[in-house]
Amino acid sequence: MEIKEHLKENGLTLSLKGSFDEASSPEVERKLTEALSQDIKSICFDLGKVPYISSAGIRVLIIAYKKAVKNEKKVLIGDMSAKVEEILETVGILPLFAIPGR
Amino acid sequence: MAPKHEIYMLRASMVSLFCNAVLFVIKSTALMLVNSLAIAVDLGISFVALIVSVILYYSVKLANRPADLIHNYGYGKVENVCEALEGVVLIGIALAMSFQAVVHMLHPRPLVMPWVGLVSCVINSILNFGGAYYIIRMARKSDSPAIYAEGIHYRMEGFISVMIGASFVLFMFLQASGYGTPARYVDPIAALLVSMILIIPSFKLARNSFFKLLDASAGEDSQMEILKQLGRHIDRFCEFRDLKTRTAGRNKFVEFKLVVPEDISFRKGHEIVSTLEKDIKAGIPNCEVLIKMEPCKKDCEYVKNGEGCLYL
User: Fold this and answer.
1) Is B146 found in the same domain as B26?
2) pLDDT tens digits for A80-89?
3) How far does B226 lie from chain A, in Å, by closest CA?
4) In total, how many domains does chain B have?
5) Can you give the residue range of the structural domain that contains B300?
6) For B220-270, what is each residue's pLDDT tens digit?
């Protein structure tokens, strides 16, 4: 998986490209931990180029939400593919995240 | 009275045992009359299947035995042992028969009474496909991997019988058309093809069951269900840690640590843990859940800023 970080106006965007699964989730979790230690107000996941998210990826998103709440930060989902949206909706965790423009 | 899943598993294993005994008799008779290597391969498969059916019957009884002092987590893994055994023995048969097929191709022999072989294959196919349909249905109802593996085995044997039957038709056609010499190669070629077809699913079966014996995690559906329930109750705990799952036969075991506010009452904490356990169990069949409650370290921004705990 390709992970790009982009810092803008006190917010960090993690743009992911590729499947968000068992293989890629440890790396995303590591980047997330790094991001949470920075002086930022929000973390945005760009999942527009993620064709599939497995339970391992969802676990990272829930951890991100919990850690962000603990540190008074916000977690957003900037963009997501139709498949990822369907999975997050099925699991019922989509309402946890702010989605800009909705 | 035994639980429903146990009844389904026992029914499936009895059907499997009965059909395999009938198939063994039919194939042994056909082999003596037809002298076909392909039927010999098929008979070898049935011989293994018959032994596995007997083991499966006792395994089902053992797997459903409740946990005791010697096996604190129950006997579910015996189902995976049964799967692995079936896979390994079938690989052995396939390799041995491939070797025999090559030897027979070098010294081909004509078949005797091929129509007997054809009739035997038709009966075998009906028994195999009928048995597979029933066993897989029972496996889905009982969520048993060993019974499911048996159903897949039955279906595969059905295709093998169809293939051997087709080789007899081809043999008779070639002989009737005056191609007696090439007709002699049909049987060893069919035996080789059957052996090769057998190797791939048998290898997959053995590999998957070995991984399950190494405490493989629960499947993706179960993992999603756990996260779904954690998401549903997300505003009742601080965080979760060390989520682990494992499978033993059709049984699944889930454990994780749930961090709750330090100042929460024991009663309230127990209520959260019990609700989560109950909801996860309801979503995953044959599942045992162990949640360890841990107090938070009061290191969140809310407590630091004197705003009070979010979850109280």
Assistant:
1) yes
2) 999 999 999 9
3) 9
4) 2
5) 220-304
6) 999 999 999 999 999 899 999 999 999 887 789 999 999 999 888 999 999
**pLDDT surpassing 90 at residue B275:** yes
Chain A to chain B Cβ contacts (< 8 Å): 51
- Asked if B301's CB is within 8 angstroms of A93's CB, the reply is no
In chain B, helix, strand, coil percent, each to 5? 70, 10, 20
Last residue of a domain, which of B187, B213, B239? B213
Whether A55 and B224 lie within 8 Å, measured CB to CB? yes
Does residue B14 share a domain with residue B161?
yes
Asked if the Cβ–Cβ distance from B302 to A67 is below 8 Å, we say: no
Rounded to two decimals, what is the model's pTM?
0.70
In a domain, B163, yes or no: yes
Residue B44 Cα, gap to closest chain A Cα (Å): 41
* Of B167, B195, B213, the domain-final residue: B213
Give B243's contacts in chain A (Cβ within 8 Å).
Answer: 59
Closest by Cα among B262, B252, B253, B255 to B294: B262
Q: Which amino acid is at B284?
A: I
Tens-digit pLDDT profile for residues A50-63? 999 999 999 999 99
Q: What is the mean pLDDT of residues B189-210?
A: 85
Show the DSSP H helices in A1-102 as ranges: 25-36, 55-70, 82-91
- Alpha-carbon distance of B160 to B162, in angstroms, equals 5
